[in-house]
Amino acid sequence: xxxxxxxxxxxxxxxxxxxxxxxxxxxxxxxxxxxxxxxxxxxxxxxxxxxxxxxxxxxxxxxxxxxxxxxxxxxxxxxxxxxxxxxxxxxxxxxxxxxxxxxxxxxxxxxxxxxxxxxxxxxxxxxxxxxxxxxxxxxxxxxxxxxxxxxxxxxxxxxxxxxxxxxxxxxxxxxxxxxxxxxxxxxxxxxxxxxxxxxxxxxxxxxxxxxxxxxxxxxxxxxxxxxxxxxxxxxxxxxxxxxxxxxx
Length: 248
Hints:
The chain is α/β, with parallel strands linked by helices. It has one domain: Spore Coat Polysaccharide Biosynthesis Protein SpsA, Chain A (Alpha-Beta Complex), CATH 3.90.550.10. The protein is 39% helix and 18% strand. It is built from eight helices and nine strands. It has helices at 11-17, 34-47, 65-75, 90-100, 144-161, 179-182, 192-203, 227-245; strands at residues 20-27, 51-59, 79-84, 105-109, 132-134, 136-138, 172-176, 207-208, 211-213. The strands form two sheets. It has a seven-stranded mixed beta sheet with strand order 3-2-1-4-7-5-8, with helices on both faces. Strands 6-9 form a two-stranded parallel sheet. Strand 2, helix 3 (65-75) and strand 3 (79-84) form a beta-alpha-beta unit. The two termini are 16 Å apart.
């Protein structure tokens, strides 16, 4: 593992990092969203005049998401695709995206077009002081059940790990890529965001938060509200707390 300087003390490298960014989208059965999501992202990234790459993580989609992603990558050498042969879960998709990232910063948002990537560039200057920008959703456009579950989940995670965040699972986050050289992730499901933030905070990385707009899903189907997925995440949360306390 390559040694790094202490968190939030790398101001010289941040000047370079602000111009070097990997952006990725975890996708599962997003054939109706992936092309427009990538198109918007490329337009935003090209305006930044940055050294960038765009990564599509196809988490074993059973529709044409993977084929469309490959077509996009074939037409643009700034785009690459990571394929899972079968659906491995949201956490596994995020891990694949972080592992594939080669730039100084890494940003991810979901491939369901519920966020506007044009709200990402204003986050970049914050990386001169922080290591993670973890956004929270303004006027979350989900069902009452999902909003209530998200509220309870965030409160519980913050209580267990001493965090002060408004929206643990908001899929609009910017990181210094080096963080993922210094933490080991185990979660392959819905626990992934909680694990990243908890482990990063434990290591001393600085986290800030900013609001971001949230839009209704116009195509495809949500999968995160599956009761089995939610119950699994709650069960694994206490195990995660034990592992982090013992530095495993």
